[in-house]
Design brief:
alpha/beta; six-stranded parallel β-sheet; six-stranded mixed β-sheet; 11 helices; binds alpha-D-fucopyranose
């Protein structure tokens, strides 16, 4: 009796967030389950689940309603926490409330959640990419390849696939714009094409409108928030008879979307991508959540990951560097 009590007290003093007997269950909620990047994140999160023996519950949350239902459902399933890339970062307060109401730990990945005034929510740890720096790498890659091809910048249009309501998207493309400007690219040649959504089809539609409006350019460089943005634009340029020697597109991501393009027998306008790490974003966030639940170790408030320019030529080495 006494020893049982002593054990209990001892356990209490360690204050485990989940008792050892309780199986750990972690949700991994993503806004666009069909996008290869998110499938890769899930795959690496599964790896953490296998290693540590917890259950990973993968849920696609394309809108706010589904997101709240998913969080409530996780609690009903006795999960202890979740990692989320929300369909809209402005749902931040809703995520925070749903997590608190259900006693779940929450951490965000890729897109940092904001409050009503647009400020990041500090109670939700975050792992994202260093968006502006990665955008600069995109811009520098475009500049270098224009030089290799001997293009006159005055004859080149730069298409920015814009999704400015998402801070990470805005920062990524701003980095690219700044790198272009710093290299002397004429600001007047930078054209915005605004995407309604962040998928390939929306990019294709936005790019078509911009190409119609700005038919004067001989060549194009293309950039956007992710590989889907650039790929959709490349398909639009192809539709107008612009071949790979007239277009340089550099995306961000490096998942299947880019790899499929590199696997084509001859190069397309999709010249490269800045590879970012689905392994860190999937495995590490899931692992951080696991440690938060089992050891009460709160993840770092913000972790920003880096990227490396990857093309058809160096894809094998660069992926190997990333442990992929
Ligand atoms: C955002 C984008 C994804 C991916 C991720 C790292 O969530 O929508 O395509 O780039 O950031």
């Amino acid at each position: 009796m006494i020893s049982a009590l002593a054990m209990t007290l001892c356990n209490l003093s360690v204050v485990p967030a989940a008792s050892a007997a309780e199986p750990v269950k972690i949700g991994f909620l993503v806004k666009q389950a069909e996008e290869p990047w998110f499938q890769d994140e899930w795959r690496f999160a599964e790896q953490a689940a296998h290693e540590k023996g917890f259950t990973l519950v993968k849920i696609g949350v394309p809108n706010g309603e589904k997101m709240i239902a998913a969080i409530d459902n996780l609690a009903a399933q006795k999960a202890q926490g979740f990692v989320i890339c929300a369909p809209d970062v402005k749902l931040g307060i809703a995520v925070e409330r749903a997590a608190k109401r259900n006693g779940l730990k929450a951490m965000s990945v890729d897109d940092q959640l904001v409050d009503g005034s647009g400020k990041p929510i500090s109670s939700i740890p975050h792992m994202g990419i260093s968006a502006y720096e990665i955008g600069k790498q995109v811009g520098l890659g475009l500049v270098d390849e224009m030089k290799v091809r001997g293009w006159k910048m005055t004859e080149v249009g730069a298409m920015r696939l814009a999704f400015d309501q998402l801070p990470t998207a805005r920062e990524r493309t701003q980095g690219a714009v700044d790198a272009l400007k710093a290299a002397g690219f004429p600001v007047a040649n930078i054209v915005d094409a605004t995407q309604a959504k962040t998928d390939t089809e929306s990019a294709f539609n936005a790019a078509n409108i911009a190409l119609t409006k700005h038919a004067q350019f001989k060549h194009w460089v293309v950039f956007g928030m992710n590989d889907e943005a650039v790929l959709g634009t490349i398909r639009a340029t192809e539709g107008r008879g612009l071949r790979s020697d007239a277009v340089i597109g550099i995306g961000i991501g490096g998942s299947k979307t880019a790899l499929n393009e590199f696997a084509k027998p001859s190069p397309t306008g999709f010249y490269g991508t800045v590879l970012i790490s689905p392994k860190r974003h999937g495995y590490e966030t899931a692992m951080n959540m696991y440690k938060w639940i089992t050891e009460n170790k709160v993840p770092a408030a913000v972790t920003l990951t880096t990227g490396t320019l990857m093309t058809r030529v160096n894809q094998t080495e660069v992926r190997a560097q990333f442990g992929l």
